[in-house]
Design a protein that fits this description.
Layout: E1 4-8, H1 13-24, E2 28-33, H2 36-46, E3 49-52, H3 58-72, E4 77-80, H4 95-122, E5 126-131, H5 144-164, E6 169-176, H6 182-195, H7 199-208, H8 218-229, E7 240-243
Parallel strand pairs: 1-2, 1-4, 2-3, 4-5, 5-6, 6-7
Helix pairs in contact: 1-8, 3-4, 4-5
């Protein structure tokens, strides 16, 4: 069986860059998202299999994984990428928003793993990659709920590696700094509406935090995801791999 990967949050941003990267390397690719319009367009562009699924629903994720297995005869990798960001401190985080971030970032990853890992085991083993953010290792202002969930995802990568490595599955996490994606654009638009600060000025300030003068690009993260999912990373498991332009080194 050819290498086959299932990617959540695959319609845009880092997920879409990964879809393109893995297809270009000859992998079978299935991806899920709630953004049907972008998902269908990407599927038409790449030949990857798109399945609508909200990762907050175990049933929807299971159906999507089953579709990937049916289409390609098995599953060898999963990239748990779907997530959301909200910019709030603990003092101004509404309970409903706190709950939404947890359900999307933590339950969504849990549901994806519950569906995908048995399929990978049935295929004889493989790899799990989790999108855990630089906030698995560092704290950032006004990022209470998001940072909490991303820290938890880093711990999931470590503990899951210990459980699954004896069964032939390696587990690692990518930990990007700010990457120019629609998710961050939406976040900055929300902050702009609340504060009046322009989105351009927010991007200028964000880019200035990085020694290279810019935030990351989705293709750069996709390169690391591909490495960790492939046999080239055969001695890597339980790792949190920063890809943050050196931001956390300062």
């Amino acid at each position: 069986m050819n290498n086959t990967i299932f990617i959540t949050g695959g319609s845009t941003g880092i997920g879409a860059a990964c879809v393109r990267r893995f297809v270009s390397e000859g992998w079978n690719v299935a991806f899920a998202d709630i953004n049907d319009e972008a998902g269908k367009a990407l599927a038409a562009e790449t030949g990857a299999l798109f399945v609508h699924a909200d990762t907050r629903s175990q049933d929807e994720v299971q159906t999507a994984v089953d579709a990937a297995v049916d289409a390609f005869g098995g599953l060898t990798s999963v990239f748990c990428n779907a997530g959301i960001h909200r910019r709030n401190t603990m003092l101004d985080t509404p309970e409903g928003e706190f709950d939404l971030v947890i359900k999307t970032n933590l339950y969504g990853t849990f549901h994806t793993l519950k569906a995908a890992v048995p399929a990978i085991l049935a295929s004889g083993g493989g790899t799990v990659v989790i999108n855990a953010s630089d906030q698995s290792t560092v704290g950032k202002r006004a990022s209470f709920a998001y940072g909490m969930t991303k820290g938890a995802l880093g711990q999931i990568a470590k503990s899951l590696s210990l459980d699954l490595l004896p069964k032939g599955i390696r587990v690692n996490a990518v930990c990007p700094g700010t990457v120019h994606t629609p998710l961050v654009d939406r976040l900055f638009n929300e902050v702009s509406e609340r504060t009046g600060e322009s989105v351009d000025s927010m991007w200028q300030a964000e880019n200035a935090d990085y020694a290279r003068g810019r935030a990351g690009d989705p293709d750069e993260v996709a390169e690391l995801v591909h490495f960790l999912a492939s046999d080239r990373s055969s001695f890597c498991s339980g790792g949190l791999y920063l890809i943050d332009g050196g931001l956390s080194a300062g």
